[in-house]
Task: structure prediction
Amino acid sequence: MARKIVIEPVTRVEGHGKVTIRLDDKNNVSQSRLHIVEFRGFERFVQGRPYWEAPVLVQRLCGICPVSHHLAAAKAMDVIAGVDADGLSPTAEKMRRLMHYGQMFQSHALHFFHLAAPDLLFGADADPAIRNVIGIILTNKELATRAVLLRKYGQEVILATAGKKIHGTGAIPGGINKNLTAEERDALLRGPAPLDIDTMIAWAEEAVEFLKDYHSKNRELMDSFAAFPSNHLSLVRKDGALDFYHGAMRAVDADGKRILDDVDYRDYLKYIGEEVRTWSYMKFPYLKSLGKAEGWYRVGPLARLNVCDFIPTPRAQKQFETFRAYTHGKPNNMSLHMHWARLIELLHSGEVIKELLLDPDLQKTELVRKGKKRGEGVGLVEAPRGTLFHHYQVDKNDQISMANLIVSTTNNNEPMNRAVRWVAMNVISGKREITEGMLNRVEIAIRAYDPCLSCATHAVGRMPLVVELFDADGNLLDRKSR
Amino acid sequence: MSKPKTPIHFTVDGKKCQAFLGQTILQAAKDNGVYIPALCRWEGFEPAGACRVCTVRVAGRTMAACTQPVTEGMAVENNVPDLQDMRKSLIEMLFVEGNHMCPTCEKSGNCELQALAYRFQMLVPRFPFQFPARKVEAAGKKILLEHNRCIKCLRCVRGVRTRDNKAVFGALRRSRDKEITVDQALAAALPEKQARQAMDRCPVGSILRKEVGFVVPIGKRKYDKEPIGSDVEKAKD
Result:
């Protein structure tokens, strides 16, 4: 008898998604899909709003990485206000960078420790009642404390630059609305203990070592789980360095051959297409030169470390060299290595935050520049989850007439579906009994991509997992929930 | 030589106060450190009695404190539970009658309606949202009129004028269909200082000087530090 397995909602991710796996009479997987069940509509209802409102409005897409949307929209609106990305005042550009690297720091800490670590620490088959962040708090207080404080530190950086920890207003078209006072700088540099930047960097480095240690003990799992070749896309600085705030688009294939290089992101439409499929509200982007079937790509920490040439801070660069050496300099296509890459980025973010805090430009007062207005602007940043595209057109009355947003998770749509398929084929297919642990492996594969399926945050680890069995005619045969 | 002001005596919630003949209850209360909330009033403009948020009670009768003159021996009820709840309900009505999205409004933190909602600890309006279909008038060079947020207080109609005393804003129709209109040619000719004043005098985010949104950081906005009315209450401490 054919069956359909539904995992809804997918837990320990941002927002709401659903997985369906169809099994044939012999329990072999015939189809697997990750559905995004929410409809957002931001691209439509931003139309008609004045352009300077966009950075504040569109950041409401997300409660975890609003800064990324805020800055991508601000970069697009800089262009509309007549200021190119390299035309901002040093204070404005560095304040935005500080805000963004604070965002990366808190989001990566949140994802690894709160959302992903329970699977690694307790195992995929552990009791779901324990396999969550509360379980970590109860069994490993020091790790849990660090998790909370690392995230808190990143949020404090955002507070100092955007005015609020979530949904601030720092970036405005052409610049920023505040600089960093000496008091704010000193508070971030030196405490109160242990919330000083040196401790944060040390903890981030220890987190990378923790992951490497875990890898050495669980090599088979980490190296084989949901591993599949793909293209990779990211922004890189002009000299090839890892850069989260600004740069040119670069893409490599599974062997490291460059597909795109030094592409001005304002021309993204020449290179990126978006495919619509009837069963999901999320589009499927692809590289036009390779077509819909072959042009899909990964974004995010793994892609960024596969695409860049080096990391421009010493401790993260050292870790990067080890990371790269593991795959002999070739792109790393192992989904669980996303966590390794993410923690290296956490370390890098800490180092960049320190560099910026020591930069006297942040106390200077030239905040905004203006130029000759234009009718169209594109802004790209590397958000925690990957490349984020914002594209707007503005009419003669200063009202937005068109918006196109390709968010990071959308870029990872096909890879996440492939990861689900990998688990379906390698873990579930052909098995007589479907266990909760098997279904959790589907979620582990999705979680590696740290998807942000909407702006919603939710009670971690407490959301119900519902599994429903249907017969070939769609009749519900059995339903289990936790 | 100006005529000497005649002092008179009155009470607000039992507190002994002194005023001058000709002052409104609202002005006199303010001079005595008593805050009476109001949205349509602006110092120097003719009072309009449009919003009724300043409603007080004297001898069992409710009246608008911004239009009613104070008289000798008057006993004003102001901060009493039923009046406060009525004011709160008026604020809630203003929210549901328009389309107010504070999280993305550039007037947030400087908005008097929002500040009053905080002061009255409004959480969810008791009335259903009306979601009226209103427009954004953005064709002007300097001023953008966001009708979704307008509470029809008429401050702009009364107080924004050109140097030769021409009204820049006017009101069309009546009651719930009332709509503020702007002469965009006159608005475009306003000097920068006056254009900013027009924005400041609007108690909500309806009149906007274009392209200056969000320039004041969070923490430095008018109501970030203290609730609305604190200045009045502190002045006599």
